[in-house]
Structure formats: C-alpha cells, structure tokens
Design a protein that fits this description.
The protein is α+β, with helices and mostly antiparallel strands. The chain has 5 domains: 213 residues, Rhodopsin 7-helix transmembrane proteins (Rhopdopsin 7-helix transmembrane proteins, Up-down Bundle), CATH 1.20.1070.10; 69 residues, no CATH class; 156 residues, Beta-Lactamase, CATH 3.30.450; 118 residues, Alpha-Beta Plaits; 121 residues, HAD superfamily/HAD-like (Rossmann fold), CATH 3.40.50.1000. The chain is 57% helix and 13% strand. The strands form 5 sheets. The chain has a 6-stranded antiparallel β-sheet, with helices on both faces. The longest helix has 31 residues. The radius of gyration is 44 Å and the shape is elongated.
C-alpha cells in the first residue's frame, strides 16, 4: 500500500465513523446535508485508499471514484452551508453540479483534464505521481469560483443575521483548509503526498465542531448501540488485517493448505478482536464523554420531579436558579417577572440573598422582544452583533455589560413571555460552553410549564376566594378567615363590623345597575384602603360588607367604621361627569373579649336581670337536659320535623315584641323575622345563609351574642342607622 496509504485509510475510517455517528442522530435538513458531505469525502478518500492498495478492479477505477468525490464536494458543501444558515438551495448549485458531472464524464472517457496517476518507487515503496496539465484549470477554476461564491453566500447570511458569524467561523476555516489542500497538489514539494486527504480530515473535524457548537449533535449519541458496533467493526478489520501475517507465522498456517482450521482460527480471532474493540469503545465513551451528560440528565430529572410537586411560584423560581448553578459554571442568576401585561419585568429572585434586584427590563426592550419571538436563549456574546442589540438604549446595554452578561433566557407562557432569566459570568473573559445553552433550554422549558401551572392555580385560588365585582373576599372564604382569626385571638381583642349601603335599591333605580355596580366598587375600594393590612374585608351580601379587625377593640373599630362612613358619604362629590346623591351606610360592630369568662356566667348575668332564657332544640343527640341541668334556663324540646314552626309559635306566645332570638340553623329562619331582635351566630360550624340574612346582628359565637343582651349601649351602637 505504501507509506502514505495509511493516511487514506485513517481518513476513510474517520469519515465512516462520523457517518455512522450522524446516522444515529436526530435527522434534519442540516444533518442530511452533512451526510451528503461525508458521502462525498468517503468517495474521495475510499477511492484514494483502494487505489493505493491496488484493489480490484484496478487503480484507474478507484482513481475515478476518488475524483468524482472531489468534484462533487463543492456542491455538497454548497447544500450544507445554505442549510446551516437556514437558506434554500439556488440555481448556482445545480449549474455547478451539471458542469462537473459533464467534465467528469469527459475526463473518465478521454483523460483530457487530469489523467490517472502513475505509480513509481519512492523510498522503497510505491507512490503515485500526478502529471499536471494546463487543462486542469477546467477543474480548479470552476471549483474556485464556486467556492468564492460560497464565501459570498456566507457573508450575505452573516450580514442578514450577525449572530451567525460566530457559528460560521469553523465552517469557513474548513472550506479554506479543503481548498488549500487541493491547491497544494500542484506544488512539487507535495508530489506523492496525500495533502488533499489530510486537508479533508481537518475540514470535516471543523464541520463536526460547528455542528456540536450549533447543538445539532449530542455526545451521548456516541454511546448508541449501532455506532458502537459499527466502530468496533471498522477498527477490528483494520487491526485484523495487520496481525494476519503475524498469526500465520505463529501458527504456521496457510489458507491454501489448512482451509478449515485456518477459517475457524481466524474467525475466532476476528470475533475476539471485534468484541474487545466494541466493549472498549463503549467504556471509553461512557467514562470520558457521556459521564457529564448523564450527570446533567440526572439533575434535570430531579429538577423536573421537584417542581412538578409544588405550585408555589417562589419555590419554583428558587429551584430553577439552584439547578442552573449546580450544572453550570456561571456568576449570578437573576429572574425577572411581569406583574401584569404592559408592565416592566422586575427582579424577583436571585441566587444571592443580598443581590440587588432593583432593576427592570421594559416590555419594549429589543432583547425582550427577541425572547418573545424565539424559543432558544440568547448567547450574549453573539447577540452583540445583532440588529436588536444595536437598537437598544445605551443604558440598557450598560445594564447588561456591567454584570458580564453571558446568557439571557425567556420563560415562555405560550406566546407570552412570563419572565426573563439573566445569567452572568464571573469574568468577562470566561469561555463559553455551548452545551450550557441546551441545559438552559431544557430547564427553562420545564420551568415555564411549572410557572404557568402555578399562576393558573393562584388565579383559580384567588377567584374562589374573592368577589368578582369588588375584588374583596367572598362570603364563603370570609367565614373561613373568621373562624381562623377567632381561634388565633382567643386571648386578644377581635372586632367584626357589618357595613350596609343604605337605600341601594333606590340608587339602582335612579342611576341604573351599571352605575350601581360602580358605586359598590368605589365603596369596596374605600373600605379596603382604610383597613389595609390591619384586617380583612369581604363582600358579605348584595350591598353588605364585612370587616374583620384582629387586635381592635370595640372603640377602635367604631372609629374606623365612622371614618369609612365619612369617606363614602363624600365620594360622589368627586364626580364631575354627573351629579349623584350622597351614599350613606349603616354598620353593626361586635368585639371580643367578652363581659364574662364563659357562657354560664353570661347566662347567670342575664337571669339576674329578670330575663328568662329558653333553650329551644330538637335535641338530636339527647344530651341537652343533662348539659343544661345546672344553668338558669328553661329547655323546650320539639320534634325535629316541626321545630322551626314550634320556635315561631313559642315566640308568638311569649310576645314577639319582647322576645329576642339567637341561633345559627335552618330551623331559625321562621323565628328570626318575628322576633324583636335576632342574632345569628357564625361559629366554627358556620351558619345557615338564609337565617343569617334574616338576622339583625351577626356575631362570632354565643358569648358575643349574650354579651349584647347585657350591654344596652353596645346594642344601641350596633343597631343604629
């Protein structure tokens, strides 16, 4: 084969290895065009290798195969470069393809441009020498023109998309290396040396680097079963062919004398070599190349599992930052979120507790707009060449530059941009690792879904707890808050006020329902702004509002309610579009702690004042008589089917004008309207809605209800209009 024959063999193995490797990768237009390039290179180097090995059917045949690969390579590169830049193939490539096929056919038939090389002895080994004729320019000049055209195409693509400039650098270097390698064949110094083959190897590795940089191939593909077996087979053949002579001498075998034994022994040897190389390749790839990817994949799986179990937005943001810091060697990480459409993206989370988050990205920022339109993150170094960067304000550029910005990524919610992630470098000279871009893309895609779910949950939770018209708490959730705060404030003061808008039906009749709704909204705003963080506000009924004030006594609550009433009275005076009647409100206020320590003491105080207390019940559990045996009360037990009617009848028999009723159940709905004074108790078990609506006063427990009966001044304050 000669001294230089192994160069062609090595090159052919490299191309075959890459061909097998990319056949296992995810196919797209760029990968397919690169496979065409590899096929052309295999024709070239394989023809050269088999020519030097003088295999059947002869040197001239393999020379023509090699030449065909060389002539078709510019066209293959043309397709690859256009696909790499996202461009469609033009007519120039087709013209070159037809011209070169024609020239090849003429040369194969008549040898008018470049004849087959002559084999000579050089340094005791066979070498091939090409006789260069002036007609060779028929090959080189069109190829050179076409390569120049390719360079102009690259320049045009980079001009239209400056971020592609960095991506095209290894591609341009590869094409230049290939062209120079073939041009050096005309220099006598390289006579007989396959400089063109070596330039092809350099070129293909530069293209491979460009694809890795473009994230079109993952190193984990190197460990795929088909690739491992293919690589093992190629290397096994190479090693086997070189050790056959040694084995023949060792076992004193010849193929023509010991056919069966020869075949058996050498088959076993080949299988052992094949198994060994396949195993070693798998071990090498998994230990050297894939270990880091496996680590990254495991961390991302843990991250996916963790954020899928939470709907807390802040926890999702913290976990997102943590996994990025764990997988990448970067500086600080900031996450900016938008409170509402049209508002800036403000800093809400960082990897450093003391980091300054007092910065924001306006929605009109060109970088933000780019993230809205693209799925992949921004490599800031490349982004500086873009039109979007040049259109940014100097303050916006300075904000990114001063922090040594490395990446910018978007948290997409469908077509909307929910947030922006800013990733910085610890040093401005930090070298980029392009697998980090894939890590960021994987993390942000999962985090975006988790953030979307968290927001949907929070919105649903908010809708379930708030009134649609006013934005205050709704009645159902207010009861939950009331019970919680009552338990928390057993040993402290707690005030409850019910505010009712007077003559609201008349207001709707005068100005319309729409204006009535606006009135309720303004009233709700006044109440909510007055209470602030001091308590809770709710829409209790159609025109009633509830205010719960932990830590307030009766006097403080009354002052607050009076202030609210004054604000509501003058609110319509601010209207300039139309003259509206003033709005007045009535309020009832109750507060804890109570006038007695327990219910028994309250009952005794009421009894001492000459008031008779009746416990009227259906006694479902049959324990009322026993529980009330020592209390100054009279117990009336009625049938559960008629207890509501019986309560009403009892009230009428006692005299409705001098009977007060206290309750919380469905069977109180008939007695509340006929009583001179009615109190609905909303305790831990809640209260029947219709009964509560019929009551004059709402309280949180029975003690508060009984205290009202003992406090005429408090009752007067509660019932005043």
């Amino acid at each position: 084969m000669g001294t230089y024959g192994y160069i062609s063999i090595i090159a052919m193995l490299c191309y075959g290895f890459m061909l097998l490797m990319f056949l296992t990768a995810k196919r797209n237009k760029i990968i397919n065009s690169f496979l065409v390039v590899l096929t052309g290179l295999l024709f070239w180097t394989g023809g050269s290798a088999f020519m030097r090995a003088q295999l059947w059917p002869g040197c001239e045949f393999w020379y023509q195969v090699s030449l065909l690969g060389i002539l078709l390579l510019p066209y293959a590169y043309y397709r690859f470069i256009l696909a790499f830049g996202g461009e469609k193939s033009g007519i120039a490539g087709r013209i070159y393809f037809v011209v070169m096929l024609t020239c090849f056919w003429l040369n194969a038939q008549f040898g008018v441009f470049l004849e087959a090389p002559k084999m000579v002895e050089k340094n005791g080994a066979a070498a091939f020498v090409y006789e260069i004729k002036p007609a060779i320019i028929v090959f080189f000049i069109p190829s050179a023109i076409f390569l120049i055209h390719l360079l102009t195409v690259i320049v045009r693509i980079c001009k239209n998309n400056p971020t592609m400039k960095v991506q095209y650098e290894p591609v341009m270097l590869g094409v230049l290396a290939l062209f120079l390698g073939n041009a050096f064949l005309g220099i006598p110094f390289f006579s007989g040396f396959p400089i063109d083959i070596l330039s092809g190897v350099v070129n293909v590795f530069l293209l491979f680097y460009a694809l890795i940089r473009r994230r079109l191939f993952r190193l984990q593909m190197l460990a795929s079963p088909s690739l491992c077996y293919g690589v093992g087979f190629l290397f096994s053949i190479l090693v086997f062919l070189n050790i056959v002579p040694s084995l023949q001498n060792l076992f004193h075998m010849r193929a023509d004398k010991n056919t069966r034994i020869y075949t058996l022994v050498f088959s076993i040897v080949f299988l052992i070599i094949y198994a060994l190389f396949t195993y070693l390749w798998k071990l090498l790839i998994r230990c050297v190349f894939v270990r880091e990817e496996n680590h990254q994949a495991e961390k991302i799986r843990e991250f996916n599992s963790a954020i899928s179990k939470t709907l807390d937005l802040q926890e999702i943001l913290d976990k997102t930052i943590h996994v990025m810091k764990d997988l990448m060697d970067v500086g600080n990480i900031y996450i900016c979120m938008q409170d509402a459409p049209g508002e800036p993206y403000r800093g809400v989370a960082s990897d450093q507790p003391l980091s300054d988050l007092a910065f924001a990205f306006e929605e009109e920022n060109p970088m933000v707009q780019w993230l809205k339109d693209h799925e992949e993150p921004i490599i800031y170094r490349d982004f500086r060449y873009s039109v979007e960067y040049k259109s940014m304000w100097e303050e916006e550029k300075h904000q990114l530059d001063k922090n040594h910005t490395r990446y910018c990524a978007g948290l997409k919610d469908g077509d909307n941009l929910a947030g922006v992630i800013l990733i910085t470098s610890s040093s401005s000279k930090k070298r980029l690792a392009y697998d980090e871009v894939e890590i960021i893309s994987n993390i942000t895609s999962v985090a975006s879904i988790a953030i979307k779910n968290a927001k949907l949950y929070e919105n649903a939770r908010l809708e379930a707890r708030t009134d649609e018209l006013t934005g205050l708490l709704n009645r159902k959730y207010f009861y939950e808050v009331l019970n919680e705060e009552f338990e928390k404030n057993k040993d402290a003061s707690l005030a409850l006020a019910i505010i009712n808008v007077d003559d609201f039906k008349l207001y709707n009749q005068l100005y319309g329902i729409k204006e009535g709704d606006m009135c309720l909204q303004r009233v709700a705003d006044i109440i909510n702004s007055s209470v602030g963080e001091s308590g809770y506000t709710a829409r209790y009924g159609a025109k009633e509002f509830a205010v719960l004030l932990p830590g307030y006594d009766l006097f403080s609550a009354r002052n607050l309610v009076e202030s609210i009433a004054k604000q509501i009275y003058v609110m319509n005076n601010r209207r300039t579009d139309m003259k509206l009647k003033p709005i007045t409100v009535s309020a009832g206020i109750s507060a804890a702690p109570y006038a007695a320590k327990n219910v028994k003491e309250l009952l005794e105080k009421i009894h001492d004042q000459g008031v008779t207390i009746y416990i009227v019940t259906a006694d479902t559990n049959g324990t009322v008589m026993e529980e009330c045996a020592k209390l100054p009360v009279e117990v009336k037990i009625f049938d559960s089917d008629t207890v509501a009617r019986d309560k009403r009848c009892l009230c009428q028999s006692l005299g409705c004008e001098r009977t007060a009723s206290i309750g919380n159940g469905k069977n109180d709905i008939q007695v509340f309207p006929v009583s001179v004074f009615s109190i609905a108790v909303i305790g831990n078990e809640g209260a029947y809605t219709k009964s509560a609506m019929q009551a004059d006063v709402l309280v949180t427990d029975i003690c508060n209800a009984l205290e009202l009966l003992l406090s005429p001044n408090r009752m007067t304050a509660t019932l005043r209009e």
